[in-house]
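Milestone M4 deliverable, item 7.
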Amino acid sequence: MQDLLPLLAGAAVAVGGVGAVLALVDLGSPLRAPFTLFFLLAAPGAAIGTALRALTPWGRAVVAVSGALAVNLLVAQGMLALHVWSMRGGVVAVAALSSLIALPSAARRLRHRGAKWWTC
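Output delivered:
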């Protein structure tokens, strides 16, 4: 089972990436809607999940799913309130917010890895 986890993570990243690209290119594919929906839920969920490493796995999953829904709803609400709704803009906004959420934990991980490397 542990050997299968990196493969599943890679497949999830690939499906999310394809969904984002299909939404940005506006390609008329039957896979565009489900892959884009997967990206819109998985990107903020993964970012929130990596930021909350101290929680138990079930607690982290619940918070990540709830946070992903909240990010998507806030992006949609903000875009509708400003009268700038577009599918491409929504995907870009969710990707940007997900990146901003994941940035502090990635920086912390890199800083910790650099400190380990220098002390060895």
